[in-house]
Design goal:
alpha+beta, 3-stranded antiparallel beta sheet
Length: 80
């Protein structure tokens, strides 16, 4: 994956994994010690997505409903 090195990044700490993943955003100006990070903590680092690119991904209710109504559930064949 190639990214622009000057792009802003978001760093989060994974707090809980099961039953759902929960992350806690870390403040940019805090050190690891101030953020109370310890040995073994999991960090999630990802580039921030500009607001402009989020607006192009909106979906209407009607098209989303059509996708759900026309979906086909498939069950993989047994390999045995």
């Amino acid at each position: 994956m190639s990214t622009d090195e000057s792009a802003p990044w978001q760093v989060s700490e994974e707090v809980k994994f099961e039953p759902k993943v929960m992350i806690d955003k870390l403040e940019r100006r805090q050190t690891f010690h101030q953020s109370q990070l310890e040995h073994g903590d999991i960090l999630v680092v990802q580039p921030l997505v500009p607001e402009v690119s989020l607006t192009c991904c909106t979906v209407s209710r009607k098209s989303l409903s059509t996708v759900f109504q026309s979906r086909v559930v498939s069950h993989p064949a047994s390999l045995a």
